[in-house]
Amino acid sequence: MLRTHTCGELDINNIGEEVQLSGWVQKNRDLGGMTFIDLRDRYGITQLTFNMDESSDLCEKARKLGREYVIKVTGIVIERSSKNKSIPTGDIEIIVSDLIVLNASKTPPFTIEDETDGGDKLRMKYRYLDIRRKPVKENLMLRAKVSIETRKYLDNQGFCEVETPYLIKSTPEGARDFVVPSRMNEGQFYALPQSPQTFKQLLMVAGMDKYYQIVKCFRDEDLRADRQPEFTQIDCEMSFVEQEDILNTFEGLTRHLLKEVKGVELHEFPRITYDDAMKKYGSDKPDIRFGMKFVEMNEVCQQNNFVVFDSAELVVGINVKDGASFSRKQIDKLTDFVKTPQVGAKGLVYCKCNEDGTFKSSVDKFFSQEDLNNWADKCKAASGDLILILSGEKLKTRKALSTLRLHLAEELGLRNPEEFAPLWVLDFPLLEWDEETNRYHAMHHPFTSPKPNDIEKLDTDPAAVRANAYDLVINGNEIGGGSIRIHDGELQKLMFKHLGFSDEEAKEQFGFLIKAFEHGAPPHGGVAFGFDRLCAIMGGQENIRDFIAFPKNNAGRDVMIDSPSFIDNEQLNELNIKLK
Amino acid sequence: MLRTHTCGELDINNIGEEVQLSGWVQKNRDLGGMTFIDLRDRYGITQLTFNMDESSDLCEKARKLGREYVIKVTGIVIERSSKNKSIPTGDIEIIVSDLIVLNASKTPPFTIEDETDGGDKLRMKYRYLDIRRKPVKENLMLRAKVSIETRKYLDNQGFCEVETPYLIKSTPEGARDFVVPSRMNEGQFYALPQSPQTFKQLLMVAGMDKYYQIVKCFRDEDLRADRQPEFTQIDCEMSFVEQEDILNTFEGLTRHLLKEVKGVELHEFPRITYDDAMKKYGSDKPDIRFGMKFVEMNEVCQQNNFVVFDSAELVVGINVKDGASFSRKQIDKLTDFVKTPQVGAKGLVYCKCNEDGTFKSSVDKFFSQEDLNNWADKCKAASGDLILILSGEKLKTRKALSTLRLHLAEELGLRNPEEFAPLWVLDFPLLEWDEETNRYHAMHHPFTSPKPNDIEKLDTDPAAVRANAYDLVINGNEIGGGSIRIHDGELQKLMFKHLGFSDEEAKEQFGFLIKAFEHGAPPHGGVAFGFDRLCAIMGGQENIRDFIAFPKNNAGRDVMIDSPSFIDNEQLNELNIKLK
Question: What ipTM score was computed for the predicted complex, to two decimals?
Answer without folding.
Answer: 0.95
